Amino acid sequence: MNFELTKEQRLIKETVKEFAEHEIKPIVREMNEQKRIPNHIIKGLAEIGVLGMTFSPEYGGISADPITCGIVAEELARVDYSCAIPTFFLVQNAWGYILDKFGRKTAKEAILPFVTKGEAFLGIACTEPDCGSDLVSMKTIAKKTGDKYIINGEKMFITGVKEATSQLTHGGGYLTLTKTDPEKGARGMSLFYIPVKDKEGIRITLLEEWGREGISSGGIAFENVEVPKDFLVGEENRGFYIVMQGFDYARALISVVCCSAGLSALEEAMKYIKERRAFGQPIGRFEGIQFKLAEHYAKLDAIKLLAYKALWMYGKEQEGKFSRFEVTKICAEAKSLAPQFAFSAINDAIQWFGAMGYTTDCTIELALRGVRSYFWAEGALEIMKIIVARELLGKDYVAYR
């Protein structure tokens, strides 16, 4: 095992850290109140080369490995523990990597270069109004007609719909999971890249979320939306298996983000408990606080290492050194632990602030609300536990089969 960063990784880490401290930190509260990531921040991220960093150089990326991508996610979450900018970053890098790997040249050229310039948003659209983790029950259908597909259906709780349709100059689109052969269940699903800005047949709904407010969330309805055959990602009816690879990457990155946000909240609280006095001394001297602090810090440190191991294994799997299911299991392990342990740590940190912890002057309430979103994002915690148990016991013990 080698925990040392490469020279390039150290440089990227320091570059992102400096940008985050100087440009992002001063506007985190404002960003959440205005419910948007300012364009100059998006452009700044593009200029330091982290938007689409997982993409091939021909599309403006640097083919960054998963560990390097995790390092950037960690630094962004350390400052923006509302998790808006980290989400903007990780969604595009995880799912852009999938499009770069499996997509056809026409689709890749239509979106990836614009993501790396900060001019477009690329996301994932799987969840439906009455279908979340049970993807086989989705109703969105794609029918092939000549050299194109016709898409009908609706996706909901989708990240970045405002950014992709109105904020960014080039708009954006989504890797969208559909059914192409409904009788085959998971073996009859296909993945498409679908642009959404000014696209005929697309209707957008915006949702009001109570956390992670700097980035939008909403729904996308497809009514006879035409998509060229070259926007099919991978082979027809193989979409379910391709999208699972994207979920694994995103889950590992989310785990790093949660741990970083939780640790940052603890560090904010540590400053306070050194200054706040009760019964004639700083409250940080009381063991009731010290022991919880030590436990939370150690747990998040440990889970962060698990998340980085998941990213490392994900990268090695691309070289054929681990099986798909080994990687899926460890990504689910990290994702099953990171959000709830980070939430618990942040919640206790807020408690140490006393009554002030229930005011917006206590900024780590942003972290509590942001991390809570990851209890569902890219797969609910319950599904993560099902995945781990399935790999431990075998498929014969999956209850829903």
**Whole-number radius of gyration?**
21 Å
The overall number of domains is 3
Report the uncertain regions.
none
Fraction of residues in helix:
40-55%
Strand content: 15-25%
Quaternary structure of the protein: single chain
Helix/strand/pairing class, anyone? alpha+beta
Rounded average pLDDT: 97
Number of strands: 10
The CATH homologous superfamily name of the largest domain equals Butyryl-CoA Dehydrogenase, subunit A, domain 3
CATH class call of the largest domain: Mainly Alpha
Q: How far from one another are the termini?
A: 39 Å
What characteristic shape results from the CA principal axes?
globular
Order of helices and strands: HHHHHHEEEHEEEEEHEEHHHH
> Count of helices?
12
Strands of the largest sheet, in order across it?
Answer: 1-4-5-8
Give the SSE map.
Layout: H1 7-24, H2 28-34, H3 39-47, H4 66-79, H5 84-102, H6 105-116, E1 121-125, E2 141-145, E3 148-159, H7 161-167, E4 172-179, E5 189-195, E6 202-207, E7 217-228, E8 232-233, H8 239-275, E9 277-278, E10 281-282, H9 287-317, H10 324-352, H11 365-372, H12 381-393
Parallel strand pairs: 1-4
Antiparallel strand pairs: 2-3, 3-7, 4-5, 5-8, 6-7, 9-10
Description:
It is built from twelve helices and ten strands. With 401 residues, the protein is of the alpha+beta class. The protein folds into three domains: 7-121, Butyryl-Coa Dehydrogenase, subunit A, domain 1 (Orthogonal Bundle), CATH 1.10.540.10; 122-233, Butyryl-CoA Dehydrogenase, subunit A, domain 2, CATH 2.40.110; 239-397, Butyryl-CoA Dehydrogenase, subunit A, domain 3, CATH 1.20.140.10. Strands 1-4-5-8 form a four-stranded mixed sheet. The chain has a four-stranded antiparallel sheet with strand order 2-3-7-6, covered by helices on one side. Helix 5 packs antiparallel against helix 8 (239-275), helix 8 (239-275) packs parallel to helix 10 (324-352) and helix 10 (324-352) runs antiparallel to helix 11. The longest helix is centred in the middle third of the chain and has 37 residues, at 239-275.
